[in-house]
Amino acid sequence: MNFTEYSAIVRAFDGGVFTSITNSYDDICHAQDQLIAELISKGAVIKGWKVVEDSGLFILSPIFDFQVLSNQSTEIASRDISGIEVEICYQCRVPLLAHDIEYAVSQSEPLVAIEVLRPKINEQSYQSCDFYYHYGMLVSDQPIESDFSLKSGQEYHYSTSAPDFFEQKRAVLLKGVQECVRRGYIDDFFFMTGSLNGLIETDICLGKNEVVGDSGTLIRVDVV
Asked: What tens digit of pLDDT does each residue of 173-183 get?
């Protein structure tokens, strides 16, 4: 599958019309499952999930194989996207049984990632059934253990030294793995745990964007 085929399926999906996640959570999860099943039947493979807190509830949003981009020297057309966000990400094998979840989460190391956001595809769908506007993900190969920065028009610094920095993100990972087990998505996935800085819009991130840590450049994406 490619982005054009994906967009056509998401745009045509008519089961995602909701006004409130708090009033329709189970129905939204069911609608997502239907849309995910259709995409998988056309060849898409789930590689990861974004764990989204929406109105006090946690919900998953799938990231497919064609949305996983090279973490070095990727070029993206500015006309196709809304901007980028920096996130902490974990690779985690989702266990079959609920009592194995905490151990699986404890074995996961933090990575850094850039999420590339796109405009909405389906004007009728609730945002979770438009998969929260994922365009692509770039995930570092190496774990992140200390402070890092994003160079993107201006420089953004991220401090990991706060005692609860990774604990907060691991708590989001736990919610995501619990949801995967509940909904029957059992595999080795990466989990995005939420933006560190909010959306950096396209006019700001135009040009070279690099995530830099102690070991050098972890991610590079060029918006052209």
From this structure: 999 999 999 99
